[in-house]
Amino acid sequence: MDVRTNMIIGLSVLLCFTAGLAGFLFWQLESKSDPIPIPADVLQTQTTTPAFTNSITINLYFLTMDQSQFAIEKRLILEPASITDRIRKAMEELLRGTHSKNLISPIPEQTQLQSVFFNETEGRAYISFSKELIANNPGHALSEWAAIYSIVNTAAAQSAAVKEVQILVDGEIIDSTHTIWDWSLPFQPDPTFVRYSED
User: Fold this and answer.
1) 109-122: per-residue pLDDT in tens?
2) Helix, strand, or coil here: 126?
3) Cα distances (angstroms) measured from residue 35 to each of 25, 31, 43, 58, 84
4) How far is residue 49's CA from residue 95's CA, in Å, rounded to a whole number?
């Protein structure tokens, strides 16, 4: 067998091997199973931060429908970093109003929260609201009482360290010459007219 014949045979064997290998690879690609789909909710949890990772439940005080007592409405919020922040968040939620059809918010409409400061030495929270807190109040003893203790009891519920609350308007002591209650004094929380049952 001469050299030319050997070359032809070698090339034929190489060609067959190459064709076989190509066919094998093509078969592998075609027969490969589809990837298992990842559920959308799994993908979402991998790319977004879950809501309320460090959440707490706070108590807000609203009036019952007969306006004779307060009832506690629980609200879930992200955990604040300090007592001041917790009181501020509670006041913001209080001003948003109740979620229950059986409760009434005693805070006058359009009242805005301006600032919150907590003095640890005094155990006193200073909470400043816009002038609507007084200007839009109906102006009778029950409405003033309800607004005062909705704010005071809600603030005090945020920490046992809160012993009393000074309510301010525009950062100033409230001039009580045109009010029934003396708003110029700090108020201590009063649980007397609070309904604690869940019904």
Assistant:
1) 999 999 999 999 99
2) strand
3) 19, 12, 15, 46, 52
4) 28
Per DSSP, the residues of 23-89 read: HHHHHHHHHPPPPPPPPHHHHHHHHSPPTTTTEEEEEEEEEETTSSSEEEEEEEEEPPSSHHHHHHH
Residue bearing tokens 């913001």: 92
The CA-atom distances, in angstroms, between 69 and each of 100, 108, 164, 183, 190 are 15, 17, 20, 20, 11
Q: What's the CA gap between 102 and 137, in Å, rounded?
A: 21
CA distances from 143 to 81, 90, 115, 147 (A): 33, 20, 23, 6
- Contact call for residues 152 and 134 (beta carbons, < 8 A): no
How far is CA 59 from its chain centroid?
13
Q: Mind listing the pLDDT tens digit for each residue in 134-191?
A: 999 988 899 999 999 999 999 999 999 999 999 999 999 999 888 999 999 999 999 8
Contact between 146 and 67 (Cβ < 8 Å) = yes
| Residue labelled with tokens 């400061």 | 117
Alpha-carbon gap, residue 127 to 74, rounded angstroms: 21
Reference 123, options 183, 83, 79; nearest CA is 83
* Whole-number Cα distances in Å, 25 to 16, 22, 66, 176: 14, 5, 81, 90
How far apart are alpha carbons 72 and 66 in whole angstroms? 15
